[in-house]
Design a protein that fits this description.
Length: 157
């Protein structure tokens, strides 16, 4: 099946694809701009480990792009309704929610691309206290062989 897939083959296109992988553009869009498909590109990555390594490093740099985009989103002035002579209205709640979703999506992607740096951290605290069990008088008598242990009535025969 894959034998008939036309390979990209051009090192210049490889460099363009690697560079584009650092942007926040979807891979399908990047491939379409460069005259290929995701399937062809992935097939090429599988066949060339060096290219796969460079692509992976570019995808990790993409996380830094997402961080910059979050900062840009936070720096934008909120959308407000212009009410003409009455002035500017309140902040558009829909716009705020849309921006919040953009930030959350980027945060999620960053946590998956760089989990050690931006992922969820599980912190488990535990405290062990010394526990003193009350003395068991029957156990002490068994240890002194003054009382036979009650293991049940089994006959060995």
């Amino acid at each position: 099946m894959y034998d008939k897939i036309e390979m990209i083959g051009d090192r210049e296109i490889d460099a363009i694809m690697i560079e584009a992988a650092t942007t926040s553009d979807p891979l399908a869009e990047i491939c379409a701009r460069n005259g290929t498909t995701r399937q062809k590109w992935y097939y090429r990555l599988v066949r060339e480990p060096g290219l796969m390594r460079r692509f992976h490093e570019a995808r990790l740099r993409r996380a830094e792009v997402y961080v910059d985009e979050i900062i840009d989103i936070l720096a934008q002035e909120p959308a407000r309704e212009d009410r003409g002579k009455r002035g500017i209205g309140p902040v558009d709640r829909g716009w705020v929610e849309w921006r919040r979703q953009q930030i959350e999506a980027r945060k999620w992607m960053i946590s998956k691309l760089l989990p050690a740096r931006f992922g969820d951290r599980l912190e488990i605290e535990h405290k062990i206290e010394k526990v003193i069990l009350p003395a068991n008088p029957k156990l002490e008598l068994v240890e002194k062989k003054e009382l036979k242990p009650d293991w049940g009535e089994e006959s060995h025969g």
